[in-house]
Amino acid sequence: MPDQTAPNAGAIDLHTHSSVSDGTETPDEVVRSAARAELAALALTDHDTTAGWASATQAAHDVGITLIPGMELSTRLEHASVHVLSYLFDPADAALAAEIETIRDARLKRAESIVARIGRDYDLTWGDVVAQTSEGATVGRPHIADALVAKGLAETRSQAFQGILHWRAGYFQPHYAPTPLDGVKLVVAAGGVPVLAHPGTNGRSGVVSEARLRLLVDAGLFGLEIGHRQNTPDGKERLYELAAKFGLAITGSSDYHGAGKPNRLGENSTSPEVLEQIIARATGWSPVYGAEVSGSSPAYPADGAEARTV
Length: 310
Ligand code: AMP
Ligand code: FE
Ligand code: FE
Ligand code: ZN
What we know:
The protein is an alpha/beta fold.
């Protein structure tokens, strides 16, 4: 039995970020934080990279928590950024690996370009941003935000996003990303399970159209992340209607970024049944099963999870 002194004990949190993208904790620390919060399971879903899988896997073995290796794939529909949570795909799949490398390169060039623009008006250099970024990490606006905070040009990450990094401030630039449909197809072809991340942040009218969603479902979309603090109440209402209509699974997760966002581990949770369906559907990778807390049962199942190393 989980110790109910931890407020979110027993939660299944399928959306977290580490310092290999824009979280503030290393993958190892995220897994340890999840164990401390007494979560039943977590997924590590860094933006456009699987670089955290190996150390998160080691940490999950060490602390005995179930880990679902994953990723949050950047896609783009016209001007809108659409994130696709992707679980248990094969990280060596050539097409997906090539695409995320392309996205990471595009993100890097775009960040340099945003910083050059900001640098015309403020005392900010690319070096300031590099100083806030772990080696090899997927670069995003949060790293620029951290540099702005370090330079005293913003109070917090969130305040930087509301100010200099807001598109209205005139420095924003988009980056290349595949369409959501191509993204879903790539994840499915790599044996993974795709779920639309926070699809209701722009309210009911901002939710993906039924026609577009039908194409994603036909391509293998598994679910909608309805439990997310940024989905609005009427956005969620619409998403529940669409999930029922298309038979999509519903997930809930925190989108934890360590100290980079107020989101706390386990503040939203996914049902064990939905997690089981994700695991059953995936053919690209296996979960890392946490050690049994008591008893003498083996820590890992005999399904090959242990044999696959990252
Ligand atoms: P990018 O992908 O570079 O455009 O940056 C988007 C990322 O910034 C998202 O993944 C969020 O994690 C983060 N982000 C967006 N808005 C905020 C905010 N208000 N405070 C902190 N982080 C934010
Ligand atoms: Fe992020
Ligand atoms: Fe996201
Ligand atoms: Zn996220």
